[in-house]
Amino acid sequence: MAADFTVTIRVASQVTRKRVPTLDDAIDLLELELRALGPSARRAPAKAFAREIAPVAQVSARGELSGPGRLRPAIRAGADVRGDGSIEAYRGKVQRAAIEQERGESPFDALRRVLGA
User: Residue 31 sits in which domain range?
Assistant: First the structure.
């Protein structure tokens, strides 16, 4: 049985890809991998020309989900780990749209809700 979903984790120049059979497994793996980054995901304010970029505006790691597209619509979504340690889920690939979290919901719960996992 071939795996249907790919989880791609990007941290700086390192890229890892893992394949899993279900969307639930993909979101679980994404959460495990991104939460494991912990304090290493934190960033100091950065300078770009004359402006300062706050840690919350920096993406220190990105996790992407991609799924089957042959028989059903392809899934393109993921989560970013910000430089302040916060995590924000998004939908899309090239044009990412942040997923609003409901009260008491984690970014990964919001991802499950929006993707129907």
Answer: 5-115
